[in-house]
Specification:
α7 (184-192) links the parallel β7 and β8. The chain has an eight-stranded parallel β-sheet with strand order 1-2-3-4-5-6-7-8. The protein is built from nine helices and eight strands. It has 256 residues and is α/β, with parallel strands linked by helices. The longest helix has 18 residues, at 104-121. The protein is globular, with a radius of gyration of 17 Å. The protein has one domain (2-255): TIM Barrel (Alpha-Beta Barrel), CATH 3.20.20.140. The chain has helices spanning 18-25, 40-52, 72-81, 104-121, 133-142, 159-167, 184-192, 222-233, 237-251, and strands at residues 2-7, 30-36, 56-59, 87-96, 125-130, 150-153, 171-174, 198-200. The protein is 41% helix and 17% strand.
Length: 256
């Protein structure tokens, strides 16, 4: 059974058919899903989904591009929500310089704060890093995020950067981008990294794999990612599914 370790089912694009979609997961081999927070509001919505649907769990946190108006009270709420049995991680948090908003110092401030909360409440982090390779790595190291562990979501850097995270015990999140024809760098990372360090994720509704690129993504598309990982690693698709499933439960033990 497959575990999708990063989804956004709170997104309004699922409002029309979310229930029908969720009911299809079990028969399709989707066992569990982690709904990752992007804002305080979306984190709360994800928590509500996790309370309604037993196979849905929640990561509570704020995406770097959404940190402009964060407050100490928001951090207190993340800390409080982290004790909920449905909250399995702090995330998604990190740095994103692709848009450069808000300014880098604000992103760093709240990345640091949320890593601190994760360490305090002893939950893993789900790290978002886009066009911010060196700063993300520096902050993960300087804030000793390896003490709580986590995953580098939607990994987009080379195998040298992957080695830095793997050496600290972090997992690498792999999704639909792996299936793209121009995805040479992430395919090299998958070849290099041990299967025991990979997690499956969709980032849905974004980043649908081939042959559905550009369409709304969902956990139902993860078998396409499994297939490519199996081809790269020269193992069976069943082995990929089983190992990544066990990896997810090791990193997020509250899902057991």
């Amino acid at each position: 059974m497959i575990i999708d370790t990063h989804a956004h089912y709170d997104d309004s694009v699922f409002d029309a058919d979310r229930e029908e979609l969720f009911q299809s997961f079990g028969p399709a081999g989707i066992e569990k899903v982690i709904n990752a927070g992007a804002t305080m509001e979306s984190s709360e919505k994800g928590l509500m989904l996790s309370r309604k649907w037993p196979f849905v769990y929640c990561a509570f946190g704020v995406h770097p591009n959404e940190t402009e108006l964060l407050t100490k009270e928001d951090m207190d709420r993340i800390r409080e929500r982290s004790s909920d049995p449905r909250v399995v991680a702090v995330g998604e948090i990190g740095l994103d310089y692709h848009v450069e908003e808000p300014v880098r110092d604000i992103q760093k401030k709240w990345f640091r704060e949320q890593i601190g909360i994760a360490k305090e409440v002893k939950l893993p982090v789900i790290v978002h890093s886009r066009d911010a390779a060196e700063d993300t790595l520096h902050m993960v190291k300087s804030e000793k995020a390896e003490e709580t562990g986590g995953v580098i979501h939607c990994f987009s850097y080379g195998k040298e950067m992957a080695k830095e995270y793997l050496d600290m015990g972090f997992f690498i999140g792999i999704g639909g981008v792996l299936t793209f024809k121009n995805a040479k760098r992430i395919k090299e990372v998958v070849s290099y990294a041990p299967l025991s360090s990979l997690l499956l994720e969709t980032d849905c509704p974004y980043l649908s794999p081939e042959p559905y690129r550009g369409m709304r993504n969902s956990s139902l598309n993860l078998p396409y990612v499994v297939k490519v990982i199996a081809e790269i690693k020269n193992v069976s698709e069943q082995e990929v599914t089983e190992v990544t499933h066990d990896n997810a439960l090791r990193l997020f033990p509250k899902m057991k």
